[in-house]
Amino acid sequence: MSRDFFKRSDVKRLLIRSTNWIGDAVMTTPAVRAIRRHFPGASISLLAKPWVAPVFANSPHVDEIIVYEANGRHRGAMGPIRLARDLRRRDFDAAILLQNAIEAALIAFLAGIPMRVGFDTDARRLLLTHPVRCTKAIKAIHQTGYYLKILEGVGIPPRGQILELSVGDTNRQRAKEILTEQGALPGRRVIGLNPSATFGPAKQWFPERFAVLGDRLSRTLDAAIVIFGGPADRDLGNHIAGMMQAPVVDLSGRTSLGEAMALIERCDAFVTNDSGLMHVAAAVNTPLVAVFGSTNSTTTSPFSSTSRIVRVPIECSPCMKPVCPLGHMNCMRQVSVEVVAEAVEGLL
């Protein structure tokens, strides 16, 4: 493979295929920045699922977001074919696939995009014009660097691993309004709690401990406590709020992702499981404490100088299982409220 494959003069219209999860998308922001700096004159479009698109809505490195309407026009067996036809009309010169599934390569292939770059995972080498070998060493590094390795494979230099997330003035104004509506007093510290996480319960610290932690931080830091979460987390947020003695603002399932990003930016500290919102907090430079158990704190830790990881190393962790195979989640059970609270208080 020629390492000068991506000559600026060859690429006028470029497609980036985003990853499908919020946290992964945030960790691709250094790669998106590097692509823009390598092609300053190109028109760059980014293809993303609807729930991920807000991550890039205010990005200065993307000219257009194309929504993969997985539950609409592009749903079902024929959906990817319809999407490929939609992309073909845009006459892209090249596609960089940050999403690793074979579907991403198949859609780019069917769209007739002449230059297609991505890792050679998921048996998709034949669908890519420039497959980049994904080695064991690459899989072992932090995911911000992992995505940059795709670009290095075709001669695009990395431009640092710092995360970048543009929240936008509209979301910032809305976040201010939400906190005012909920009675969070101006000038008072705001502590965010994020008790949810996708990929199963093994990633989630215990709700009752989040409740005890919220009460403690409200008392010791004179802080307003805000609970975060998506639409599926309303019951969880309500459960934790109901266990707390201190006043609490439960926003789980009550904000858009853009609003949640702006609210996290306003937090003085954020306590979270390994999750998409953890990476949002890291990207907007909010001091955070992340509780890790079943997942790998080397590859998916918050990439931030103001973050602290709390975990208890035991023999079976990280197991990368969505549900604890032993049934007792000992890796999480050994993480005490005291340790997490001290980590937050130390940050502040």
TrEMBL record:
GO terms for molecular function: ADP-heptose-lipopolysaccharide heptosyltransferase activity. SUPFAM superfamilies: UDP-Glycosyltransferase/glycogen phosphorylase. Pfam families: Glyco_transf_9 (PF01075). It is an enzyme of class 2 (transferase). Keywords: Glycosyltransferase, Transferase. It catalyses: an L-alpha-D-Hep-(1->5)-[alpha-Kdo-(2->4)]-alpha-Kdo-(2->6)-lipid A + ADP-L-glycero-beta-D-manno-heptose = an L-alpha-D-Hep-(1->3)-L-alpha-D-Hep-(1->5)-[alpha-Kdo-(2->4)]-alpha-Kdo-(2->6)-lipid A + ADP + H(+). Its EC number is 2.4.99.24. One of its GO terms (biological process) is lipopolysaccharide core region biosynthetic process. One of its GO terms (cellular component) is cytosol. InterPro entries: Glyco_trans_9, LPS_LOS_Heptosyltrfase, RfaF. PANTHER family: ADP-HEPTOSE--LPS HEPTOSYLTRANSFERASE 2, TETRAACYLDISACCHARIDE 4'-KINASE-RELATED. Belongs to the glycosyltransferase 9 family. NCBIfam families: heptsyl_trn_II. This is lipopolysaccharide heptosyltransferase II. It comes from Desulfosarcina widdelii.
